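Supplementary notes (optional reading)

For those who missed the lab, this is the record we used. Protein: Glycosyltransferase family 2 protein. Length: 262 residues.
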Amino acid sequence: MKGIDLNSSQVNVKVEDLVSIITPHYNNLTVLRDALDSVQNQTYSNYEHIIVDDDSLLEVKAELQKLIGNYPNIKLIFLDENRGAGHARNIGITAAQGRFIAFLDCDDMWEPAKLQIQIEYMIKNSVDLCYSEYHVMNSDGVVLNIRKIKSPLTYPGLLKTNSIGCLTAVYDTTRFGKVFMPTMRKRQDLGLWLKLAKLGAKIEGIHIPLARYRLAEHSLSSNKASAALFQWKLYRENEQLGIMKSLYYFGHYVFFALLKRV
């Protein structure tokens, strides 16, 4: 995938290939505008952007409603109970009308040609789930490094390490229909990738950074102990692996986590 122009406007895809972008939101308007701008600046314009507010404060909901008036193609859904990002994403998947479903958290951003490159690649290569490398930023937006990926991926490979950043993932509903995230507080995105892998999805990544992931000091993603606990629960409860298989894959998970060091 070397040599791709991130600002290219040429892509041979059908106008009916609508992309549904799903963004969960909870009391985080300060960075949401960056995410909205990055979607509006996409060179691929056939999208709907579904923002699911996970029961933010009343004043935040009012400001959110004002904010989205400045952006096209947005559907806003308000939930009356806070149940976490995974549940909010599933509500978004239910409401989605597009062939393709993409995910973008409210504190992350996309490069301008992100959708264009991925949709073209998926159609040309019959890929069911596509992802990419991405930049890792601190809370001030300063890029720290590039998160590299492994590709292609299989079910056993995903159990060893998750190379798919949720902010880069796009899946095609053509073969398997809408597939939902498991109802767990964390690792629900990996749970979705595993579901698709078990269905026989073709899973491939693009080796250039197409998005920007923002590290939040006190976010769920920055809590390593919590992440390890949920990884173990994913093996035992969600995937129903035995003790020995769980230990085998958990050992790989720890090894690759140490390599990432972020």
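If you only remember one thing from this example: The radius of gyration is 18 Å.
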